[in-house]
């Protein structure tokens, strides 16, 4: 915890990489439950993490994953749900889920288009374009599914509050959950099924 001020300073850097490193270090602190109270009481830090999640959306999956996992560590304890509410974590997390889903859909659409072009042209360039797009999708999938797992697990923890669960339902959480059922990650799909069961008895 003695280096927390240094990590916080790094979050103000213009480049993404120092922010990624700093959030990774803060995550290591948050994984120790003994540190959570002091971190939660550091309101400027909590608000800064929240702002980064909003402002840097789409710029770094690693950055988003670190911050979401930091908030997830807090979400395991009801005591820390109010500070998360102050940071508008539910809204920000749903925004990330929506953004990542669109990004995945766009890349799948691009692959479908490139396959259609390949069918028509049968050229090496068209084949290369398909392979490049498919490789990009596979590269993105692993990181993205880890981020989505953290997002949905965080929301599931926060949904123990009926009012928060209602807020999620009003923001189409069920539609987001259903779209995850054909993902490759067994952990993500299992979590989604558990979440859907909870929502079904709301």
Question: Any overview of this molecule?
Answer:
This protein has helices at residues 4-10, 16-30, 33-41, 43-55, 61-75, 81-86, 89-121, 124-158, 162-170, 173-178, 186-200. With 202 residues, the protein is an all-alpha fold. The longest helix is centred in the last third of the chain and has 35 residues, at 124-158. The protein is globular. The N and C termini lie far apart (40 Å).
How would you summarize what this structure contains?
Helices cover 81% and strands 0% of the residues. It contains eleven helices and no strands.
Estimated helix fraction: over 70%
Question: What is the number of strand segments?
Answer: 0
Q: Which oligomeric state applies?
A: single chain
Largest sheet: none
Instruction: Name the shape in a single word.
Output: globular
**Chain-averaged pLDDT:** 92
Unreliable stretches (pLDDT < 50, length at least 5) are: none
Helix-strand pattern:
HHHHHHHHHHH
Euclidean distance between termini CA atoms: 40 Å
Would you spell out the secondary-structure blueprint of this structure?
Blueprint: H1 4-10, H2 16-30, H3 33-41, H4 43-55, H5 61-75, H6 81-86, H7 89-121, H8 124-158, H9 162-170, H10 173-178, H11 186-200
Helix pairs in contact: 1-2, 2-5, 4-5, 5-8, 7-8, 8-11
């Amino acid at each position: 915890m003695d280096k927390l001020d240094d990590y916080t300073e790094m979050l103000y850097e213009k480049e993404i990489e120092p922010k990624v490193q700093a959030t990774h270090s803060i995550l290591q602190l948050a994984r120790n439950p003994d540190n959570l109270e002091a971190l939660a009481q550091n309101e400027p830090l909590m608000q800064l993490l929240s702002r980064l999640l909003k402002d840097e959306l789409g710029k770094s999956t690693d950055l988003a994953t670190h911050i979401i996992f930091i908030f997830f560590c807090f979400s395991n304890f009801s005591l820390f749900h109010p500070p998360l509410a102050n940071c508008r974590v539910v809204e920000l997390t749903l925004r990330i889920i929506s953004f990542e889903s669109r990004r995945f859909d766009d890349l799948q659409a691009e692959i479908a288009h490139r396959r259609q072009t390949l069918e028509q042209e049968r050229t090496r360039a068209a084949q290369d374009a398909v392979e490049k797009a498919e490789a990009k999708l596979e590269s993105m999938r692993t990181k993205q599914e880890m981020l989505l797992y953290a997002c949905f697990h965080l929301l599931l923890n926060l949904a123990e509050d009926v009012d928060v669960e209602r807020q999620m339902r009003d923001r189409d959480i069920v539609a987001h959950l259903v779209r995850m059922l054909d993902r490759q990650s067994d952990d993500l799909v299992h979590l989604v099924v558990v979440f859907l069961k909870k929502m079904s008895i709301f």
